[in-house]
Amino acid sequence: MRHFILSALSAVCALTGLAAAASAAPAYFIQDNDYLGPGGSDIQSIIPLLNRPGVELLGATVTMGDDWENAESAHIRRFLEIAHQTQVPVADGATLPLVNSVAATRLREQQFGIVPWKGAWGGTGSIAHVPATQPPLGDMPDGRPHLAADPLPAALFLIRAVHAHPHQVTIVATGPLTNLALAIRLDPTFAETARQLVFMGGLLDSSMMSVTGNANYASDFNMITDPEAAHITLTAPWPSITCVGNVSNDIMMTHDLMDRIDSHHTPVTDYLKRFYAALPLWDELTSAIAVDPTLVTKSVTAYMDIDTRDGMDYGHAHVWPDSTAPKGMGLRKVKIVQSVDTTRFLNAFVTQAQNVMGTH
């Protein structure tokens, strides 16, 4: 009997150990972004995904948007070098939207008014002399990286990673959704094989926001740059979708916040201080919510799609309740974040920025 009891206890302990090991398995993430740099919201957005217990960043995939793709790739690879996080692969992706173009945007501005932020296609200035395709890489004040990009294109990198960890990978999309749309078109099972999509964009009631606030912050750049990709992505069969839109305009990078980060000197905090940008923490908040959804204090669920018709609403988000949502259009329900625990988010971001240095 004693032998039987000991054997049973051993079996229970073994099972408990297996369960503990399973529960300790890391949460997998890929960040897809238009890494305008050096510094600023795009580069800083990777900080909540690094050196975090239980979090494994499988890679960063790069898409054209706030800057041309080749410059963005170089800036994020350089940041990973500075942070000693060179184990994170960077996969180069789309250099242009699926359909939208410089010429079409130039014409659209003549017809429907100025786009306040055009990213690679002129920033806050003119689009008049912007080239139609990606130019060679220019000067880099942060220095050119030695870390090479992954040999796989971003869309294939995303597909491979999701199938390597079925139903475990969160895609954090904080730029135009071109790479995700390409992955969906290449592999119809891609979205349903992921764990979830958390994206920055989908601003609502932005017309009034552009009048009463900063028109740049209300432009929903990630959606209007590639509306067709946004439509393809948001109508794909993700297990769940979280939209970090309007709420992301409400939390700013300030000098006081940067001083808090820089109170503990590392190569990363020195870099952040040097390239300080007084912008909303758009992408940083999106990454933080993806890792810790308990930061969300209020949300609403609705059907969402992006307008792809030519006109003044091109790239604008629309939402519907169950009762009025279009039928047979493949629309998906989206969790729209309305408020967050700002204090906890900022405190955590300061700590993460100060402790992001790796050992690689």
UniProtKB/TrEMBL annotation:
The UniProt record lists the keyword Hydrolase: yes
Domain called Inosine/uridine-preferring nucleoside hydrolase: residue spans: 38-346
Gene Ontology molecular function, alphabetical: purine nucleosidase activity
Protein keywords: Glycosidase, Hydrolase, Signal
CC per GO annotation: cytosol
SUPFAM superfamilies to which the protein is assigned, alphabetical: Nucleoside hydrolase
Protein name in UniProt: Nucleoside hydrolase
Signal peptide: 1-24
GO biological process, alphabetically ordered: purine nucleoside catabolic process
UniProt key word Cell membrane: no
InterPro entries the UniProt entry points to: Inosine/uridine_hydrolase_dom, IUNH, Ribo_hydro-like
